[in-house]
Specification:
About 40% of the residues lie in helices and about 25% in strands.
């Protein structure tokens, strides 16, 4: 696999990574395209197949694992698998663009390990676990039980932050967007960060 650069944004759910990634995709000078992950879970809320995720069956996901089709994959929650198909990255590189990911911390670190020179790995840190819980509740897309599962997982995810190239603390969204834009711009333009 050859091509452009890889920009990974990882964080606990509710940290703001998706908002940051969407903002960066709108900065045309960065020449980014979004890597749509594959998942075995059902769509939530207004999610559309092929936009936020490619939704496939658990059986089909396991076939892709067996065939070695994934760049990275992870069982994030029981029977909820997420992964990045190699063909998705190749598709974006064929367009002459850099790939931007909005993925879990394990997947993000796997990509960084496979492509250390081509990857910028950014961890988005929430102001606190309490704020994270408030943000997840405001979404109104999941049960209290699912939110509590995400909060429990967030503590583990926060411990991985030092393994990333940069940590953006998302206390103020505008500041976080500006910081992310500066980091990614410097990386894709090969300037000193």
């Amino acid at each position: 696999m050859e091509g452009g650069k890889l920009i990974v944004f990882s964080a606990p759910s509710g940290s703001g990574k998706t908002t940051i990634v969407q903002y960066l995709l709108n900065q045309k000078e960065l020449n980014l395209d979004f890597s749509v992950s594959v998942t075995s879970r059902d769509a939530r809320g207004d999610e559309k197949d092929g936009e936020e995720y490619h939704f496939i069956s658990l059986k089909d996901f396991k076939v892709h694992i067996k065939n070695g089709d994934f760049l990275e994959w992870e069982e994030v929650y029981r029977d909820n698998f997420y992964g990045t198909l190699k063909t998705e990255v190749e598709r974006i590189w064929a367009l002459g663009k850099h790939v931007i990911f909005d993925i879990d911390v394990v997947g993000g670190l796997r990509i960084k390990k496979k492509f250390p020179e081509k990857t910028l790995a950014v961890f988005v840190k929430p102001p606190s676990i309490d704020e994270l819980k408030i943000r997840l509740k405001k979404r109104k897309t999941e049960s209290e039980e699912r939110i509590n599962m995400r909060i429990a997982k967030a503590s583990v995810e926060l411990a991985t932050a030092p393994q990333f190239d940069y940590i953006i603390e998302n206390i103020d969204l505008n500041t976080a967007l500006s910081e992310a834009n500066k980091l990614v711009s410097s990386f894709v333009l090969e300037e000193k960060i």
